[in-house]
Specification:
Length: 249
Amino acid sequence: MGRRRRAPFIAATTATLLLLAGCHHDEPDRARASAAALVGRAPLTGPGFPPAAAAAKERLAGLKVEWGRNWQTYKREEFGRYWSDETDAIGGRNGCDTRDDVLRRDLKELREGDRNPCVVLSGVLDDPYTGTRLPYSYRRASQIQTDHVVALGAAWRGGAYAWTPGRRLEYANDLDVLLAVDKQTNQDKGSRTADKWKPPRREFWCEYGRRYTGIKAKYGLSVTPPEKTALEELLATCPAQAVPFGSSV
């Protein structure tokens, strides 16, 4: 009798172990599928951003005009030391590194990782600042950098000095604030404001003015008198219907 009772027990135990083994084997695939679904749903651009030229002009008119403050207290680490996905900014909490989000949004001929859809393996950037076509490869040194259109130092002087650390981290990782651009041009720009630096490519001046103004309005940052004048000049270059960077006609 004892032997007869053991057989069903052994069979049931074996079936349970096989089932558990199958579940364990499926976990990475399920995790990848879940990550892919999350990445696919996550928006990489805020609604209505950048604002159209007319809207940007209205928002510019409503910005506070004052000279920058507390410039001497600025430190890069005030905005976080590294890229962070743990914010409520556009692109936040989607499981991907902020820089990877920017590359996925701005590069063309994109090839993403099979195991990790966040990772960009290769692509091409039509640099908005210069018009140069820049190739990208995950395993090679790149001439592409991620630029804060309104630089962190400029944001600090325009009011970010009074924000909480969490708000500054959100700003630093907000995809609406960021663009993939040519490395050398980004370094030439530094933390200069619109009155002291404009993209070498004039065709991008309208878009630059719209993005810059949209960021200032979104975060309630002030502008200096020369900065406001420069933005008015940039927005004056906009045609009747401007086509956003990266979109197709």
